[in-house]
Amino acid sequence: xxxxxxxxxxxxxxxxxxxxxxxxxxxxxxxxxxxxxxxxxxxxxxxxxxxxxxxxxxxxxxxxxxxxxxxxxxxxxxxxxxxxxxxxxxxxxxxxxxxxxxxxxxxxxxxxxxxxxxxxxxxxxxxxx
Length: 129
Fold this sequence. Notes:
Blueprint: E1 10-15, H1 18-29, E2 33-37, E3 40-45, E4 48-54, E5 64-69, H2 73-82, E6 87-88, E7 101-102, E8 109-114, E9 120-125
Parallel strand pairs: 1-4, 5-9
Antiparallel strand pairs: 2-3, 3-4, 6-8, 7-8, 8-9
């Protein structure tokens, strides 16, 4: 019997231009291609898949849709900045010069940015990774 827990986690991203989207996720984020069909494409991210689907009238929301928990958020943020990523700074959040926010207990750090379609993405550094 196949169990859901044995499956591969798949996240979904929507775009108005699949070629632009794939170029950005492959070139800037570094996600390798996993396959393509008439409706979009798959990218790999660790043991997960990211399904990119074309929706011609897509409008991104204001909350994160995809994120990566990394061992060193400062190094990851700096690497992305060098590739042209601009991190979002929210009023009154107290983020540092890289756009990184520290949780009140100092255990978790987060930063947010957007892809070319306006999808909000995040980096996190958590203590129990």
